């Protein structure tokens, strides 16, 4: 409690670094409530809400109703805060308008098949680095190993489990703006996950599609890793 009181008394000079910590935490962990952020950052809820109000005003984050799975309880859903497209622009991106322009030219001259070939080719080195790591892991541990490897490469990935299987969530995508126009980038990545994990995978959500995180479902029962289901358009 003493630490929290000290943080609340920090001068406005430190507001910008603290807001950066707030937005970075949302980026890495996905849409979060003010209470969650306060707990993770060691701030009071009032302090977090003050920073969130400013981040919303700046267009860095947006407020939305928390998505509820299963039976909803009484009362309104809790508000969660998610990074906006403009907010993501504040973090490093590996691709910019030049990359999108190059892919537009590739699509115009070689068609969608050429774009897909490029999307697969750009992941070859990544897959070659990840494959030995997953080969050393037990099948049940491979999603965690893959998520850790993705995090080291800046994807801020995590793993959760459901009765139907595991899910890998990527809270940051360095090619989100390009993938918004060229979904082949997401499709090629899902195919890579399928090969590395030795199971069929299903993309439930992508940042490029407007979701808060990229979510890949890994069924409990492995199947032949031949295809990765496309996210409906």
Which descriptors would you attach to this protein?
233 residues, alpha+beta, Arc Repressor Mutant, subunit A, Muramoyl-pentapeptide Carboxypeptidase, domain 2, 2 domains, 5-stranded mixed beta sheet, two-stranded antiparallel sheet, 11 helices
Write the layout of secondary structure elements.
Elements: H1 2-8, H2 15-29, H3 34-41, H4 45-57, E1 61-65, E2 79-83, H5 85-88, H6 97-110, H7 112-121, H8 124-135, H9 142-152, E3 157-162, E4 165-170, H10 176-181, H11 184-197, E5 201-205, E6 214-219, E7 228-229
Parallel strand pairs: 5-7
Antiparallel strand pairs: 1-2, 3-4, 4-6, 5-6
Helix pairs in contact: 2-4, 3-4, 6-7, 7-11, 8-9
Ends: how far apart?
48 Å
Low-confidence stretches: 1-13, 222-227
What is the level 1 CATH name of the largest domain? Alpha Beta
Beta-strand fraction estimate: 15-25%
**Helical element count?**
11
Query: What is the helix content?
Result: 40-55%
Provide the CATH architecture of the largest domain.
Answer: 2-Layer Sandwich
Number of domains: 2
Which strands sit side by side, in order, in the main sheet? 3-4-6-5-7
Global outline: globular
Largest sheet: 5 strands, mixed
* CATH T-level topology of the largest domain: Muramoyl-pentapeptide Carboxypeptidase, domain 2
Structural category: alpha+beta
